[in-house]
Amino acid sequence: MLHLSAAVDQRSAHDAGSYVELARLAEHGVLDFVTLDDTFARPGLDALAVLSRVAPATSRIGLVPTVTTTHTEPFHVQAAVATLDWVSRGRAGWRLDVSTTEGEARLFGRRHAAPADALWQEAGEVADVAARLWDSWEDDAEIRDEPTGRFIDRDKLHHVDFEGTEFSVRGPSIVPRPPQGRPVRVVDASEGQARDIAARYADVALVRSVSAAHARAVRDQLRATAVRFGRGPGEPRVLASLVVDLGDGEHAAEPGHGGGGPRQTAQGPLYRGGPVDLADLITSWRGEGAVDGFHLTPAEPRRDLERLVNGTVALLQHRGLFRTFYPGSTLRDHLGLAKPANQYAVTGGAS
Known about the structure:
14 strands; 8-stranded parallel barrel; alpha/beta; two-stranded antiparallel ribbon; single chain
């Protein structure tokens, strides 16, 4: 199964309607999910809030905001992501990231910037406690029995009693268990500091690579590490991240692009060419077993996403390489991921 996703980032866009338009276009192409980046390092709208607005205007596409784990409260983060899963009826994801600069630290005034290794270790702890808090309500904890006035079965709420290096959380969550059980966690595993965290906690790992061979090597490493953490084969899903510039028409890929592979730039691997050449690249990398799919960032959001959907995706569908309808209603359905068992219902306590 080929997985395709796209970024809907827009510089200086403050109109929710423009994000709705892009998400609907991606949904028309039956993409697995869209991402919206966020950072404390520059001004901009809150990605999670924007995608909460997009949720009722879409029906199937997954919605994955970036939410940093640095300078934020883990309890609030997990509750917000769980809420997005509820309002989207099971289509939420969460792209974990860290804030490494002193400027970002000064916005909060709680602590100084820390090395990336320490911040990613903390991010792993946040991913861990989030899963515990999502599980802290069993699926049938809500009773809603009007005659007796009982709303919840307190025996099916659980304290997580988590102690991290920088925080502690008792729980339970204030939000019932999300429709997906646990919203999909996404990590950019391109850099070494994040790779172990992706292998241990991510459902989807993004890899910025300029060659199929490099992407395959990273995927093999991620999955070997995941097995050591007790995860199953095929975890996590690995998507190659490319910036795509589909230009002004259907023309051949520039030298160094297309079938020859993307070119490394300051913004990451860049593909510049036509929609057909991009379809050929995707077909080639997927055929070589390098990745499970692609995460594509349009260089020109509206123009390139339209050409991606109406050109590249349509061609992949014509070739029988990409689906023409959604297999289910949740993001986990799109990715072929089962709903996780509740660790408290299964074991009776924290794992």
